[in-house]
Amino acid sequence: MPLNISSIKTSSDGAWEGDNPLNYAFPLLIVQTTLVLGVSRLVAFLLKPLRQPKVVAEIVGGILLGPSALGQNKNFLHWVFPPWSTPILESVASIGLLFFLFLVGLELDLSTIRRSGKRAFGIAFVGISLPFAFGAGVTLILRRAIHEANWVSYGQSLVFMGVALSITAFPVLARILAELKLLTTDVGEMAMAAAAFNDVAAWVMLALAIALTGNTGNGHGLDHKSSLTSIWVLFSGIAFTSFMLIIVRPAMTWVARKCLPEDDILDQAYVCITLIGVMLSGFITDLIGIHAIFGAFVFGLTIPKGSDFANRLIKRIEDFVSTLLLPLYFASSGLKTDVAKINGAEAWGLLVLVISTACAGKILGTFLVAMLCTIPVRESLALGVLMNTKGMVELIVLNIGKEKKVLNDEMFTILVLMALFTTFITTPAVMAIYKSNHSSSINTQRNHLNHSKSWSISSDNSTTSKFHILACVHGPGNVPSMVTLIELARSTIKRSILKLYTMHLVELTDRTSSIMMVQRARKNGQPLVNCFGKGKKARINDQVAIAFEAYAEASKVVVRPMTAISTLHTMHEDICHVVK
Questions:
Q1: What would the pLDDT profile of 195-214 be if each residue is shown by its tens digit?
Q2: Is-contact 475 517, C-beta < 8 A?
Q3: According to the model, what pLDDT value does residue 296 have?
Q4: Contact 179, 434 (CB under 8 A)
Q5: DSSP-based three-state secondary structure for 109
Q6: Please, which residues bridge with residue 563 across strands?
Q7: Which DSSP category does 453 fall into?
Q8: Residues 413-423: pLDDT tens digits?
Q9: Angle, to 10 degrees, between the axis of helix 186-212 and the axis of helix 392-403?
Q10: Over 53-95, what HEC string results?
């Protein structure tokens, strides 16, 4: 007998009362969350030797829990993921998605887009327009080959397919570059700038796609009334974005200035206001007719980048969202993905066609423009592969398309597998392409360290020799003991000028704050190691650099501060590269 959804209670009275916890909303949500986290962590562990980003493991974990693998057991789906629990699971996952898009907007620096120049804009423009054009042909083929794919108009299908093929996942790209130690290289800088262009354009196109498909739930194309509604949705979206950037952005800048590190009470109040602002922005865009995530993304753009306020927000939100809530979104997506829908040679041929078209449009378009911009062949090819990265943002687009009934089950599954494949091949492909150039970039960086300016206190005796020390510290707490050790060494070399290289070792994690730190490092740094000696603004948040700067001024020592941002298992490589 089917369960009456209206009779579902939040919690059970316990097994001793004869209740099955899996028939109650909250205990079942606990079981689902535990299972999702366990499977995604296991897949991430298995894929770790392949240096895959976490998003790949979470997508695979979601698919494994769905009808493609474990979900083939009907009893498993009936007890663990019953149909009545889907709205609850998706609602909790949507909260995580809302705040994830807020963090994406928070880490996307629009000033970087303005500074990136014509080359990045050209790469991004062709990297969007060429796949979008290829999507027109793919959409036509899919509509003829897949039954029920023509429920909506060709224009609506084209917009969603074009966005799906042309998008570049900015957060996933940043983590791949950081993992490969390419984020501070010329290729990494160009990829991030072009991806930032691409990200903004993708959200604009997605908002357009949602506006065009707002009234397609009945399976028919656009009529006159729905066309007029779409126009109102677009104008309302433009008005909302303008209001946020013109009115709310200065207000949030004022909030960031008021949020002082030493004032915890004030900080708590403004953080609460910000979280409320995220949810209200999501509600307003949902009210307009655009998805709630668009409002959260735009609100993230209003927060001043690199401020102490932004860093505090990230530290308080990031772990809870990315570790607990986002995997639930992947699980809900995996429950909709059924690989069995791709049945027969024709269906698998369509999958190969979509993957080939997506890769050709992105890689070929980016490669050609990069070559026209006089970027070397190997770097141009690596840039094309990097720009082909999909991931979380792609899944968001596809889920919205399925929700709006623009994509049926087979098209949805094909596009999910395309996103998984293109993201999976990025890391090994870039490693293969860029490996030979990696050592030369290290030599360039090392030469830069030897010839760059320092916070120097020069000696009057030009005949004295220089004694070099590389001091590695993990945080401000290590500075006093390191200074004591340096002074002991200095007492034995009185006729030498001490030149001290200080390396602040920072662990690179999946936290957005680490990625933002690397992005700040890129503005003034060199490959692998950031040199903080080029301006006070770049050092303002680095207490280790400030401490050694004070030591240099007080002790008349030549100090060269650096920051190495790496994963723990590769941190020794950065130290050895600088020493050599």
A1: 888 878 887 888 877 877 65
A2: no
A3: 94
A4: no
A5: coil
A6: 504, 530
A7: -
A8: 999 999 999 99
A9: 10
A10: CHHHHHHHHHHHHCCCCHHHCHHHHHHHCCHHHHHHHHHHHHH
Residue type, 322: S
Query: CA-CA distance, 172 to 393, in Å (whole number)?
Result: 9
Strand, helix or coil at 501? strand
Whole-structure pTM value: 0.80
Q: Which of 411-425, 494-508, 516-530 has the highest mean pLDDT?
A: 411-425
Q: What is d(CA 230, CA 245) in angstroms, rounded to the nearest whole number? A: 23
pLDDT value of residue 529: 43
Question: How many Å is the Cα radius of gyration of the chain?
Answer: 26
Instruction: Look at the block and give the residue holding tokens 């010329």.
Output: 186
CA 446 – CA 578 distance, rounded (Å): 6
Tokens matching residue 246: 């013109």
Residue 10, H or E segment? none
Helix (H) / strand (E) element for 218: namely none
Contact (CB, 8 A) for 499 and 562: no
What's the Cα-to-Cα distance from 149 to each of 136, 209, 347, 402, 406, rounded to whole Å? 14, 17, 13, 11, 8
Which residue is associated with the tokens 């080959």?
145
- Position 525 scores a pLDDT of 39
Edge-to-edge strands, sheet with 558-566? 465-473, 496-507, 558-566, 529-531
